[in-house]
Amino acid sequence: MRPDPLPAPAPATGQDPGQDPGPDQGMAGPTGETDAALIAAARAYFAQRRARVPGFVRERFGLRGTLALHRHALGWDILRAPANMLLSPVLVLARLGAGAAGRLGARRVSHWLASRRVLLPTAVSRAAGRAIVVDLLELPWDGPGGASTGDALARAILADPTLAGLVATRHAAGAQSVRALSEYGGTRSAVAEVTTALGALGAGAFAFHALTPGMLSLAPGLAAVLAQQAAIAAFPLGGLMGSAWYGLLPAAASPLLMAGVALGLVASGALAAAFAGVIADPVQAALGLHERRLNRLIDAMEDAFAGTGERGFAAREHYLARLLDLSDSGLAALRAMSG
């Protein structure tokens, strides 16, 4: 019969082998100390990133910086930007579905919906993402625009040699940070939509003294102007008499003209969205919106690396864009019914 194994020797801690370790002793030791040192190094790194945000915003999102950024839009972005405007409502529905599923306890469904990449990556958003990763965060980049091997986070961590072995245990933080950066890139599409809608609002207020928060609500006024001018030009007694006649009895725009103008405005607005950041970036920089958004991004990345990982980064601008869409469609429908 095989003899029973000898009991293992007691650890050299000065404590009785049968005594349970206290709560403080359970947290003590090299692993706990190393983990605390890793988190401290990471928090110092993210604090340094926050200090760099104001200068980064001035350099990259001021007028000169955004003009350099939007040279990347001269290409396929002219098609991707309109496609993203059509896909943006799908993104909003996915995010709302993720929130509802999370509240109902369906965490796998919530995670799947929240992680969907609905919008097409544009050259401008990739260039902005590279600038954030390489210049602001000083992390490695191997995507478009040229590779960079700088790694300020690794330098901060590896300054203490005992931390090197623990870095490999935090892969999930990297994946969550990538998702946050992708979500940040999607804000450019939403802000471009909002900028285009505000342009339509200003045009409607200036030209027609009407509320036009989008191209659909702007179309009836422009179609009426075109119909009026065409009717005056075709008046048989000449333009002067035509102006007098149609001043009393304004010409009505045909449904075909209305549809054509609406389609043309929507297409031109979608095209303008590719370059809307040239206006939106300096305005957001002046209002501090870029700084607040980048700080939220850094907060989410810090939480993923050194916190609970539950904070996340949500692009709220998509919801504002959808509200403007709804108000635009609603006003267009009301005017069509009243006409």
The number of domains is: 1
| C-alpha termini separation | 101 Å
Structural class: mainly alpha
Give the fraction of residues assigned to helices.
over 70%
Mean pLDDT: 77
User: Helix and strand succession?
Assistant: HHHHHHHHHHHHHH
Q: Beta-strand percentage?
A: under 5%
Model regions low in confidence, pLDDT < 50 over at least 5 residues: 1-30
Largest sheet composition: none
Cα shape: elongated
Helical segment tally? Answer: 14
Give Rg in angstroms.
Answer: 29 Å
Number of strands: 0
Account of the protein in words:
There is one protein chain. The protein is an all-alpha fold. The protein has one domain. The protein contains 14 helices and no strands. It has helices at 23-27, 30-61, 63-70, 77-103, 107-114, 123-136, 152-158, 171-208, 215-233, 239-248, 255-273, 277-287, 289-306, 317-338. The chain is elongated and about 95 Å long.
